[in-house]
Amino acid sequence: MLRKLSYHWHNAIKTLLFVAGFGVYGGIQAKHILGGEISYTHISGNKYKFTAHIYRNCNECEFNTLNCLDIKNLDIYVSPEELGFAKKLGTIPISKVSKKDVTPLCKSASSVCTGGSFSHGIEELIYEGTYNFDTIIDYCKLEIGLRVDSRLDAYNQSISEAYYNFTRINICNYINNNSPQFLSPTFYILPLNQSFTYNILARDSDGDSLSYKFSKAQKGWNSNCTYPSVYSAAKPIDVNCSSSCDLNKNTWPIDGIGIESNSGWMGFTPITQSQTGFVVVEVTEWRKINGNWAVVGVSRRDMQVIVVDLNNNPPKITTSAFEYFACSETDFSLDFGILDAIYSGLKDSVSFSVFSDLPGGNQAKVGNSKNQFDALYTVPITRNLIRSNPYYLTIVATDNHCPVVASTYKTISIKVTGVPDPVSQVSFKECNKVEFKTQASGSEYKHFWHLFSGNSLLESKHGGNGYFEVPNPGKYYIRHQVENTNTGCRTETVDSIDVPYFSLMTTGFSWPDNVCQNEDFILKKNFNGGTAEFYYWWNGILGTDSFKININKPTVFELSVKDKNGCRYQYSKEIKIFTPVTLSPNDTAMCLPASGKAVSLNNRISITPVTILNQYKFEYLGSNGNVTTSNGKYYFAPASSGDHLFNFFYTDGNLCHYDASFTIKVVDIVQTGIQSPASACSNENKLDINQITSCTLKDGIWKSNTAPAAVSDGYFDPKKSGAGTFDLVFEKDLNGCLLHDTTEIVIHKAPGVFIVKPMDSVFCSTQNNFTLGAIPVGGVWQNDVNAPMPNMVSPSDLASKSLNRATYIYTYTDKINGCKSTDKVTLYVNPAVEYSLLPGYEMCANSQLQIDPKITNSSGIQMSGYHPDLVVKRVDDAYVFYSSNVKQKVLASYVFTIKGYEACPDKTANVDISIKPIPEIEIEAKPAQGCVPFYSILSAENKNPNVKPSRYYWKEGADWNEGSLFKAIVLNTEGVYAYEVKASAEGCFSEIARISVEAFQTPVARFETEPKNRTVSADFTQLTFSDISSSKVPYVRYWNFERGSPATSDKQRVSVDFPKDTGLYGVKLLLVTDQGCQASDFKNIRVRPGLQFFVPNAFTPDSKGPYQNEMFQVVMDSASMFHLTIRNRWGQLMFSSISQFSGWDGTYLNEKAPAGVYVWEVEANTIYGNYVKKSGTVSLLR
Q1: Same domain, yes or no, for 512 and 547?
Q2: Which of 100, 733, 949, 1146 would be a feasible disulfide site paired with 983, CB 3.0-4.6 Å?
Q3: Model-level pTM?
């Protein structure tokens, strides 16, 4: 059904197909070109067939009419890769072979191109032509281009530009390339706000690798069409995209825009109604030549597009992924769906096609339901399809929406890989172990192993290597499956193996959980089964069937056994120790008892923990005492004081044995030696009681019942007890014998004294003298030895002695009890403020001035004042003034306040600052750029009329040198050079003015000739010239050959023919860089007269004729190389010489040669570099 176009779609199509105005084409105007492409195929040798596709608006002018002259030729250029400027080498004649309507319409509609009712149309014209490149020998990489005036306007710019497109070909190295063919039809109408996908479907018959990218439309050789600033080759129109606008093919509608470089699939969502633009896909062919990847061709499809609201939703292709793996020796199947969305309650029928470089595929529609159906694409994968690069498969779905159809493309990659080779190895190891391993290693492989007995699965494992342990002797089967996790490809093998007789060993009994600490214990073998002979390893040491242990902490013991069949038994256990018993003496001292009295020994030993007591015993090791037992207890009666040694033996309930030794110290009673009483004053510090009582025993405990708070840690504090008499009690435990003694201490009341003058403690060094004063409570004056107290104090005198602190002490003594009391005062003297400031300072504009008062004896400094041309910053006690760039002198005033230390007065100072203006210098170079040797004049100019500079200084490199307003420079080496200048006036320097000049490299022009002596004869006047110039920068080469053919050239090596007229001819090589620097080399070449060559045709070596005819000799110009040979008619060599001055006398082996005709041949190089090879006959007459 042909639907009615919406208004805006209709007008958009008109915009595309009926753009007003005309371009220029060969003097005939028209705007009808929409795009196209050029391809080629190799015929034979250097002969190729070229095919040009042109897409145009068929409502516009018709080719071969007044306004549209037909296309006749393709242009041959040197490719920009080989030559940096346009060089046309010729044309390829082409002729039109077909024309067809390519308007994207539904089946029931036809365009005006074919006389249909749809009033708009696009037609495709195809042109063909052949060309043999044998005549092009100087260049390899060519660009075959087509330029037509003019194409339809784009981007609403109202700019009429030419259409230019090209293909590139390499005609050297026997490449014989065929350009890729584009299987997809071109497109021009893009659906508004609908996701658009496309693939050019390029296929290369040579198997070359292809890469894809967006490129700009061109209007001429290496010249792009005009694009607005917001558009580019990668983003030619407005599309739905995030900030980066990178293509996200997993979204729908598609986000961003882009083309996949390896498959050519593109996608985007146009969003601007009626927008026109260029979409150009450039395809590059890559081929490995001599082991290296090289570009062998470039093709392009140029498409001018317009965005239109089609009132239609393009069909959507649904597949689960964009990348797939296919395993060899299997069928690869792709299940995909196609959904054509319903618009306004209508749905369209859909057709689809599959394009792939995988051979042998077939497709089938497997389901259909209303506006969607499923399809299945299947292709058998054989081993010969395995390769490192993926294959690509493109699904094209097209609806039958009227009038304009919509198509969707989806390209997926298919990586064909081989199924993994298991490389399984199964073997019997020993006992019941069956080992398996594989050589298919690598992190990408996953291995599965399954153990079968008959049809019963016994065990499964995974990993590359391992083993199974079978339960019984007999036949077993092992299935090995290996999977490549990257591709999902899997394969499997099955192996069988016979396991011989074996008997497994099992545990018969367990070892004990605990043993006694540090006592020997025997571990024995504890297994049943196995086949004798046995080998035993105890903790890795080969031994017998038992093992002796002795441990003091929990220890793991391991028994490993191997029998005759290799069956192994392993048993390990951590054996702990019984909780050990600790034997500790409780009381190791006692007082010497009355004669014959015994004390108990049982309470002298502590047993931890307490267990069932099996047996214990005390053993006395001395002779001055007696041990007895009664009712299971032991008693000891010492006969003297001193140390008495015992042994104790004990066996616990676990039959573990322990023993301990201990000593009982028997002590006699001793005396303290305390003397009493002691005395002290109430103002004294803590007193050592042992010292004041003369106690001879140490480490005892002192107490006081009458002054308990005054006694602590063996010291008595009179300040806590006050005056009075107090008791002191001494106690000490001597190894069980308690000593006790008492004494007294008398504390006398101490007097008091207080200093009352001066009232202040801080003074200034400039203050007057003052008097000290104190109030004693009784007593008399006494002078302190270290600091006698004067009646009068002078602060200035203390300061002069560098004393900033002085301490005075007053002492008073009680005449009755002798107790003393003191008071002291510390006086602090601060020095007076000192500083250094000038009344006035000068500074330059745009500089800084630091004023440091150099203050001493100050607690700080403050400054007040303000001027708009000065910024002030404080650094410690100094102030830094930053001036602006004043144009004339400025005066500023400030007040400094210096703070004195405590008790010393502050001081102030007034300071004036004068700011002097500075010169303002600008620098100019004439010229600023040039070729080496480069000459330039640098000039400095002062822009401040209020200042007259007195000196100028120029900096070149690292040094400043005094100069004038001008400086001349000469640069002999290329590069960018920096120069600086500054000026001074009244001691103030200007800001540094800077300038850079650039010297460009001038090439060193040199060329050489072949022959090197630049001399040829008139017989052969061709010389070859080679540019051997040296240059670090690119340059353009211009040869000029006086009367030469060719007369000019731009090649690096060129052969030139000169006139045969003898004389000198000038040759000049001119080099011009991109910066315009020129260099030249000039040489003369000489053309000498032609070769002088004379050979007689007969001679008579018989002395009958003239002397000159006695010998055959060649007469010619001097030669640097000469070779003469003479042969008879059978080819036999009769004579040979390498000297042009020797000849043949008609003899052979000292015999006269017979008369007859002989063949001579001369090969020589003249001294002018000419090569000569001549031959002929001579008659020998007798």
Answers
A1: yes
A2: 949
A3: 0.45
